[in-house]
Amino acid sequence: ARCLPELSKDEDTGGEGVEDERRASAVVRLYEVDCAENCALKARALVEGGLVIPAVDRARAARGDADAEGWSDKVGDDETEGAMPHCRDRVDENEEDVDEYEIVLKGHMAGISASSRGCGDEGRDPDYALLAADLRSVSSLRRALSRGGLDASRPTLVLSELVLAYLGRSGADGLLKFISSDLLRAEGSALVAYEPMGPPPPPSPSSLTAGNAVLRGYAEDYFGKFHTKLDRGRHDFDVVEGHGRTRGGGGNSHGNGDGGSSFHPLGSDRSDVLSRLVSCGFSAPLLADCVDAGKAASSYSSSRRCPFGSGDRDPPSPLSAPPSEYFDEHAALALHLKCYALVCAFAPGPDGGAGLRLAGRVCPWRRRSSALGSGSPSDRAAAPAAAARIPYDASWLSKSTAAV
Questions:
Q1: How does the average pLDDT of the chain come out, rounded?
Q2: CA distances (Å), origin 189, targets 185, 275, 286, 352, 368
Q3: Domains of the chain: which residue ranges?
Q4: What contacts 171, CB < 8 A, 6 or more positions away?
């Protein structure tokens, strides 16, 4: 994350005061939300790894208070109550079902210079907050974000990776509705989610092919492993905690109408996911789309090989050519990618076009067809058919490996 946009030296900013104001307003702030137990582990790892520099209460630090730094791994421990009041905010005792610190860590992300923020080191507001909340409860999440200082009137990017599937259907629906109504309000706001999708519904006899039969069998077997592991762990926890008693909560399947399972893919296929998004408020003027991870990877790699638009193209790179041969696990990887969906949603601009423009930049599989003339997107082929058929290429694979 960094301060965006950077102002060019020859840009007429209207004076130093205006430039400082624009830079200050463009600071990127990151709010990470997780359960209290994970937050305690993350806080220690982030601080000890030097990724986040904890905020310091300067007055308390001057007095030599050992608790001046803005983090602690003792989340929810009554013995630590009162430590770091500006960074760990304990909710009022009369607030129902909340007994843990919501703000676990506040600080500055390492590697982001003060000059890029348009301000000096002294008096800088923290740009990172680690918040403990129950994602199954919208009230818990809203309270944590509010206490953390999130301003949803500014462009907001919501990222979710393998989260919604573990909240139960009702819990995930509540979270999606909150995102669509409260977080995607400002122009330039967006949701990007990477979540399980499938297994696909049984094909009709007329549409039955070897391909969709294999995909359904693979997805059922793959997701079945998640069900087995999660349900076994939930059963063991219930037995230890209450000798077999069930636990409440929006994300637990006991008694919440979620069908007796702890794992719920976002939908069975693209159409199912889009229908669910619409039911959760992702309808006009919001723009939502969904694609399986295989198509997303193929579209990205194709756009890297054959960039869209006019003008000079970059010289060909050895990594940009399709692989000469597929490795043995190609078929398994292709099936695996179809078990995950990439979901994107975009807030509209004043003219309704900003969402489309941003979607075109973020989602390479979305291309407008001039033949339609209605403004609706189409999946027009952007590269040779042979390139579009593969779920990845050497460049995509090498970049992914390097990132891991």
A1: 67
A2: 7, 21, 10, 13, 21
A3: 28-150, 156-404
A4: 135, 136, 250, 251, 256
pLDDT at 230 over 50: yes
Count H helices, E strands: the chain?
12, 10
Peptide linkage before 323 cis (omega within 30 of 0):
no
CA 258 distance to own-chain centroid: 23
Chain center to CA of 147: 21
CA torsion, ordered 57, 60, 66, 71, to nearest 10 deg: -20
Residue 305: partners with Cβ closer than 8 Å, 6 or more residues away: 320, 321, 322, 383, 387, 393, 395
Q: How far apart are CA 200 and CA 338, in angstroms?
A: 10
- Condensed to tens digits (0 to 9), the pLDDT of residues 36-95 reads 999 999 999 999 999 999 986 544 455 555 555 555 444 444 433 333 333 344 334 344
Phi, psi of 215 (to 5 degrees): -60, -45
**Distance, CA of 331 to CA of 333 (rounded, Å):** 5
Q: How far is CA 92 from CA 47, 117, 179, in A?
A: 28, 34, 25
Q: Kindly state the tokens that stand for 247.
A: 């636990």
Structure tokens at 135: 């994602």
Nearest-angstrom CA–CA distance, 132 and 134: 7
Q: Which of 273, 288, 285 is nearest to 366 (CA)?
A: 288
Best CA proximity match to 170, nearest among 135, 136, 133, 134? 136
Q: What length is written for the chain? A: 404
